[in-house]
């Protein structure tokens, strides 16, 4: 970063908490969820098209088309949110910061804009010509794969900027140093996996919602038409069964992606936190032991809730198909719930570790202090994370094995299982919000860590 002259007067930030804080948070978190879905949906559409080409499976063809349509519907809104955020929030309220960041990360932002334009061309070309390309399915598959690759590179360039803000290599503005800054690689892997898992959760949520709505309408229609039984009315149950079967298959497909890929997030998230600890220790301290420690506690509880809901779905879904002796799924569900309760234990009954020390109660609660050794990250929360990984994997593997053996019958589902799908999608959405809050607040009091303060957007480096 070019050092600021010492006689430059800092520029105060106009506005208030609503304009300067909540507006940034709401718009950014909304855009992140839309962008993450778009990138994950592109990847899953590519997977489904590939399966459809190999197996000629109409369900995957239908799913791939549906994902492309959903992307076309939400892309313009998500892009509008991002553009509005840059023009109004960043340029207007945080102008000095945005200009400085744009100068430092000029080329990543330029190539990101080029990738954005390429996405528009590819997405709407595929969307508008889906039926016309039916005879050229391999070409359509190639275009969708190209769209997925372009979206991945756009995320790559954005992650260069985001990771640089947290670990800027002591202000080194060299392009290679920006890309290879310490937290970039784990952040890129984390978002690549997380975007696909989020898209799977959205699919599961959509399937559960549509199933509940379809069954509710069917009940209302049946009640209204009960006195009049005609030959034409007999076709409705067949259509309803086909709809239920499709939504049941769609829901389990989304759950499998959401749960199995979230298992990798445990290791990737730990790696990311370790890089923050090694290269931006005050930010790590704020997350793990400071003002954000209880928010971080919420994140790990939400993670355990995701795996518990997934195991519950697998268990009850297998039971709905008449499978007996489900002791493996029962044990997995019980262990995941217990591990979540263990992970929910706070390490101290205060806002932060510093508050405990300031109160001179740096001792266990059974000795009259504010510390809770049961809630220590090592070894208790590490143990809980290992339980999440092991039993979450066993639960998902057990379900996939039963499905591959034909013991899980499509259509044998219940309304309660759809509620589990809704809860899973909602929980993952909340977890994404919590992660965003933790990551962005960990830099305080800096916008660019160690280089530019939030207050007055003041550049803190003074040069040699």
Model description:
This protein is mainly alpha-helical and 464 residues long. It folds into two domains: 1-168; 201-221 and 237-448, no CATH class. It has 14 helices and two strands. It has helices at 17-55, 58-93, 95-104, 106-128, 137-166, 175-179, 184-224, 235-279, 281-288, 293-320, 327-343, 353-358, 377-404, 415-441, and strands at residues 446-448, 452-453. A two-stranded antiparallel sheet has the order 1-2. A hairpin with a 3-residue loop joins β1 and β2. It starts with 16 loop residues before the first helix and ends in an 11-residue tail after the last strand. Residues 1-9 and 229-235 have low confidence and may be disordered.
